[in-house]
Design a protein that fits this description.
The chain folds into three domains: about 90 residues, no CATH class; about 140 residues, Double Stranded RNA Binding Domain; about 130 residues, Classic Zinc Finger (Double Stranded RNA Binding Domain). The chain has about 375 residues and is an alpha+beta fold. The protein is built from eleven helices and 25 strands. A three-stranded antiparallel sheet has the order 1-2-3, covered by helices on one side. The radius of gyration is 30 Å and the shape is globular.
Length: about 375
């Protein structure tokens, strides 16, 4: 949470003899929502900390010529003392993730009382701004404007360093840090740093084990809301990310990006030792064990070791018998997602692995077995120049 001084300048009517006014008012930046203050103008008054009546809960400040009232909306009124003490508390607790202020409606916790008050609007204020394209509604008109860009595709905020565009100015600001290399949010538990505070908070849950986002359909819980949204699609069957080259659709955009590389042949991940290229990073990580032999993930049931946590998780199902990947076309279930993908091709008829002779197969290993026939068909060629 950032405190900043907002200098507000206003020229009043010179005809009535009132000179230029400069009033400095402290604002809290909370979830991209500012506490709006009704400024009551008085000539040549500068509000300072020592001028503020700390006993007041109404925002009455003592100016040189008497009291000045700062009127705030009732649901977010905060005294100068409260903000001052809270700022000290936030400064002390931001890195320790102490969140003593909890929402009674949803259980979400915050490091500051003003943050909590801002959040409570989600529950208490009427969402009167309704989207005409979907069933979403918003408390504030500017939230609706930003949301509507998802439907229109409008992205008015363009990066000056590259061709990237954004629907929200805050997203552009975060993106610009990828060019500057700025990562001001540091994890106190490891060496990782982040461009956004929200990314740091999500990361810290890896260390704390906190999983506040729970599925209402099953008992699964996640450390990030985005993970829960993706998981919910396993219940609804929604696959919003459609490939433009074929009929395949995916629950995550990252899965679609990986899939597109099958069409383009793009392999952006290169081994720094043998220069072999891969279409996704997980395959590169697995490949690197060929060179370094590192397999840090050990099975607690047998002597097998694995190079990635995902490989270990898949292997453990051979001990537990768990088969979480179920076909939505029939009753078959599998312990690995890859097995389910192969099985689904029996329903769709998809055969992505093609030989030059025209034959196609559902699996790469079947194609490789087939290609051995062509190798045997080719006679040995004797290089007579060596004789």
């Amino acid at each position: 949470m950032e405190d900043r001084m907002n200098s507000v300048e206003r020229d009043t009517n010179k005809a009535i003899g009132v000179t230029e006014l400069k009033v400095k008012v402290k604002e809290e930046q909370i979830h991209n929502e500012k506490i709006e203050v009704e400024h009551i103008w008085e000539p040549k008054v500068e509000l300072k900390t020592e001028h503020i009546d700390l006993a007041s809960d109404t925002g009455i400040c003592m100016g040189e010529k008497g009291p000045i009232t700062l009127l705030m909306p009732n649901n977010i009124q905060a005294s100068a003392q409260e903000i001052s003490l809270e700022n000290q508390h936030i400064s002390h607790t931001t890195h320790s993730l102490d969140k003593p202020y909890q929402c009674n409606h949803c259980g979400k916790a915050f490091i500051g009382n003003t943050q909590l008050r801002s959040h409570l609007r989600v529950h208490t204020l009427k969402k009167s701004f309704q989207c005409s394209q979907c069933d979403k509604a918003f408390v504030y008109y500017n939230q609706l404007i930003i949301h509507m860009r998802k439907h229109t595709g409008e992205r008015p905020y363009q990066c000056s360093q590259c061709d990237m565009t954004f629907a929200d100015n805050s997203h552009l600001k975060s993106h610009l840090k990828t060019h500057t290399g700025e990562k001001p949010y540091h994890c106190s538990h490891c060496d990782k740093s982040f461009t956004k505070n929200s990314s740091l908070i999500s990361h810290l849950r890896i260390h704390s084990g906190e999983k506040p986002f729970q599925c209402s359909q099953c008992n699964k819980a996640y450390s990030q809301n985005s993970q829960l949204i993706v998981h919910l699609r396993s219940h609804t069957g929604e696959k919003p990310y459609q490939c433009s080259q074929c009929d395949m659709a995916f629950t995550q955009n990252s899965d679609l990006t990986r899939h597109k590389r099958k069409h383009t042949g793009d392999k952006p991940y290169q081994c720094s030792i043998c220069y072999k290229n891969f279409s996704n990073n997980s395959n590169l990580i697995t490949h690197m064990t060929v060179h370094n032999g590192v397999k840090p993930y050990r099975c607690s049931h047998c002597d097998n070791n694995f190079s990635t946590h995902g490989q270990l998780a898949s292997h453990l199902r051979s001990h537990t018998g768990e088969k979480p990947y179920q076909c939505n076309q029939c009753e078959k279930a599998y312990s690995h997602n890859g097995q389910l993908k192969i099985h689904l091709r029996t329903h769709t008829g998809e055969k992505p692995y093609k030989c030059e002779c025209g034959k196609a197969y559902t699996q790469n290993r079947l194609l490789q077995n087939h290609q051995k026939i062509h190798i045997l068909e080719k006679p040995y060629i004797v290089n007579t120049s060596l004789q």
